[in-house]
Structure formats: structure tokens, C-alpha cells
Amino acid sequence: MASRSKALAALCERADACDRDDSLAPLRAEFLFPQGPGGDVAYLCGNSLGLQPRATRAALQGELDDWQRLGVEGHFHARNPWYSYHEPFAAPLGRLLGASPLEVVAMGSLTSTLHALLISFYRPSGRRTKIAMEEAAFPSDRYALASHLRLHGQDPDAAALVLRPRPGEAQLRTEDVLATLRRHGDEVALIMLGAVHYYTGQLHDMKAITAAGHAIGACVGWDLAHAAGNVELQLHDWGVDFAVGCSYKYLNSGPGSVGIAFVHDRHAMAPELPRLAGWWGNDAATRFAMPESFQPAAGAVGWQQSNAPVFAMAPLRVSLELFDRATMPALRRKSLALTGLLAEGLQLLLDAHPGAFEILTPADPAARGAQLSLLLPGRAAGLAAALQAAGVIADLRRPDVIRVAPAPLYCRFADVARALQVVADFLAAEGR
Ligand SMILES: *Cc1c(COP(=O)(O)O)cnc(C)c1O
Q1: pTM given for the model
Q2: Count of domains forming the chain
């Protein structure tokens, strides 16, 4: 292959060696892969929609069978009783997020859960009305935050404290975030950021920003959509007030699957916090006594509104078992190596084709997760098509960005090498 430089060839050989040494490699067999030219695709898109675990079909079938067999009796007599279906999720979700079982629950969807928690945790009063948010936050988060500002009679343009990268830079600097928070100290009611930015792939210093938020007397929430199952989290120890996530990206629970909520245990009962109550958030001991007034259950479950969406949650049960088998520290180690190899290969290509693309993601491995975001003005769609044609699935963010995210549960180092080869061929064909 003409475009295969010696350096890239050596890197591909190293990739094969890494796969042979990878203690997590057997987990790949637990997943089902879309087929492309030459068999399994190289699936580098787990940041958008994770792959289906093999065991998911049987888990769903099991719930359907129990429903067929038991009807309403399944609430108590299903193999995983639906009445208490959410309870066994607490321990593995806690391990995933660095939280106690009391602090986590699978519920709703990401955006609906964000709304439910904003009711409790955005409490403007007096001068303290602002929400600190990212300029380029995910649209759903921006809409949700703006709608809560309006609900409280605030002008979203005036009450949003927008955190922006410096001119010409793609990422927010932690020092700038902290300085802005200090400058606006007594005006900020809430800080709400994406832990890993969906577009740039930047992983924020969650511990430092959470501490800075508390130092100015604000509440701090995180969106974990791109962080859960991707990076190691210590939500409890960092003192995070609340967080939301989804389970269909790195958590492989299928399209539109159930959301995730974290509420720090210092808020576990907090009767003074307003909330959008529903019967599944009521204390389980009195739920079916159907009390006149809401008696919140202790912990994050007290924010649940409806009974568990069993068909959305069965895949998450399967997924959490895989994460428990792998463990987050081991996954993160492999992730750092996989994405490190990708970054190294891309740098080789940039050395050969200066200026051919830009990497928007921080170069510091501690400031990113699995994903690297490539900026190629005017040429991203072309590269995406070339990747697709070669059986490499990455994620085109129109107009100019391709997100490449090797998820360590099922990606091989060889998948990264395969993607690099396609990029090398693409750049060579451009004749740059
Ligand atoms: C994926 C994603 C969402 C999606 O929200 P849903 O309610 O699950 O549709 C929201 N916010 C961020 C930051 C995301 O990355």
C-alpha cells in the first residue's frame, strides 16, 4: 500500500501485539457487530450508540416470557420482580459512578431526568439567579436550562453565565472556568456542565469545578451522557450535588434506553427541596397504602416518578454486569491505551500531511475520554464516506467534524489501526 509509511506499519504491528496482551479482549465476544466489507465493522461510535450485548435479547425475552406466564403477578413473581425492578441496579450503578447505592437510580430519560432534578436544584434567590453553562452545550441541555430560567421568570440571555473558550481555542480552560465563577460568585445559583463534552471530547476537571462551585455557594450538576462508562467518576467524594446520564452511549443499553440520576446523599431526604413527585418516588413502605400526601423515599429513588420501564431497563441490567466484570479502572486503562494509539497514529499522519486536519480534543489524556474529534473543514463528509466504505464506523457531526471513539469493552487496537489506515489512504488520495 503506497500510503503505508514505515511508521504507520510499525504502529499497526504494535496494535496487534496490544490485542494479544489485552486481558479485556474476551469481552468483545459478548457483543454483536454490524457487518461491513470483510465482516465485523470497526465500531468507533460507542459515544453515540453503543453496541448490543449478546445477552440483551435473552434478557428482554425473559421479561416478555414472564409477562406472558404471569401477567400482573409478575410484579412480585417475575424472575426479576417488576415491583422492585430498579433496586438491584443501585449497587452496580454506584460502582460505575463512584456513588453509594442510595445516591443513584435508573429512571426516565436523560432530558426528562434533567428537568426533574433542575426543579430541585436550580433554586434562584435574591441576586443568586444565574446558571453557569457551556457556550456549546448539547442542545437538549441548553433548551432544558433556558426553560428553567424562564420558569423562574429569568431572561435566559441575561441569566445564563456562558463559559467560552478563549478566542481561537476549542476547549475551556479550567483556570478560566474557576476565574469566571469567582468573578460572578454571588450571582451563580447553579453550575451545569457536560462532564465529557459531546463535541470536543474534553473531560472537565470535575473535582476542581465542583469544589469551586461550592466555594461560591452554588449548586453543581453534571451531565454524564458522554462520561458514564467512559471515564472513572467519584461523584460522591467530589461532592457533586446531582448528575444525569443516559445508558445508550458507552453503556450499550440500546436506543432511547433508560436515563440515570445521581443525587448526593446530603440531599437524600431534603424535604425543603421542591420536586416533581410521583408514586414511585414515595417511600416503598407506604406506596401501596396510597397515602394522601407524598412521603419521599430516602435517596435518589425519591425522585422517581413512575414505575420502572422494565423493557428499557433489562438491557441496562445486562450492561452493568459487563461493566462489573471488566471494572472501570481496567476499562479506563485500556481506553487510555486505545485512544493513545489513535492520537499517536493521527500525529504521524499530521507529520506527513501538515495541516490536513485538527484535533479538537485535549492532547492531555487526563483531559479526555475515549473520543477524539477531528476537524476537517469541507472534507469531513468525504472522510466519513471513506471510513464507512471500508467498514469503519465513526460519527460525522456536520459540517466539519468526525468523532472517533474506540470503546474499550469491545474495540480492538486493530480497529484503531484499521481506521488510521483509511485516514492515511484518504489523505494520500487527496494529494496534500
Ligand atoms: C446524548 C445527549 C443527550 C440526549 O438526551 P436524551 O434525553 O437521552 O435524548 C443530552 N445531553 C447530552 C450532553 C448528550 O450527549
Answers
A1: 0.96
A2: 2
Asked if 184 and 47 sit in the same domain, the reply is no
What is the DSSP secondary structure assignment for residue 405, as one 8-state letter?
Answer: B
Ligand 1 centroid to Cα of residue 198, in Å, is 9
Say yes or no: 45 and 10 in one domain: yes
For 219, the grid coordinates are 449548586
Picking from 290, 325, 360, the residue at the C-terminal end of a domain is 325
Distances (CA, A) of 292 to 288, 289, 295, 336, 364: 11, 9, 9, 52, 55
Helical residues (DSSP H) of 234-327, grouped into ranges? 235-238, 310-326
**What is the C-alpha to C-alpha distance for residues 94 and 103, in angstroms, rounded to an integer?**
7
Residue 155 shares a structural domain with residue 253: yes
Instruction: Convert the pLDDT of each residue in 183-226 to its tens digit.
Output: 999 999 999 999 999 999 999 999 999 999 999 999 999 999 99
Question: How high is the pLDDT of residue 19?
Answer: 98
Pocket test of ligand 1: the residue of 49, 111, 403 to mutate, having most ligand atoms within 8 Å of its CB, is: 111
Sign of the CA dihedral with 351 first, then 353, 355, and 358 last: negative
Give the confidence band of 269 by pLDDT, cuts at 50, 70, 90. confident
What pLDDT score was predicted for residue 26?
97
Most ligand 1 atoms within 8 A of CB, residue of 246, 249, 260, 395 to mutate: 246
- 412 in any annotated domain: yes
Q: State pLDDT tens for residues 356-411.
A: 999 999 999 999 999 999 999 999 999 999 999 999 999 999 899 999 999 999 99
Q: Which residue has the cell 450535588?
A: 241
Report the pLDDT value the prediction gives residue 1, as an integer from 0 to 100: 44
Do 41 and 140 lie in one domain? The reply is no
Mutate to test the pocket of ligand 1, among 110, 202, 223 (most ligand atoms within 8 A of CB): 110
Range of the domain at 266: 84-325
Whether residues 235 and 380 share a domain: the answer is: no
Ligand 1 atom nearest 246 alpha carbon: 8
Residue 150 above 50 pLDDT?
Answer: yes
**3 state DSSP class of 359:** strand
What b-and-e string marks burial along 18-46, b requiring 16 or more CB atoms within 10 Å of the CB? bbeebebeebbebbebeebeeebbbbbbb
Residue after which a domain boundary falls, among 301, 325, 349: 325
Q: What's the CA-to-centroid distance between 293 and ligand 1, angstroms?
A: 33
Does the CB atom of residue 140 touch ligand 1 within 6 A? yes
Which CATH number does the domain housing residue 305 bear?
Answer: 3.40.640.10
pLDDT for the residue numbered 2 = 46
> Is the domain of 299 the same as that of 177?
yes
At residue 292, the pLDDT reads 84
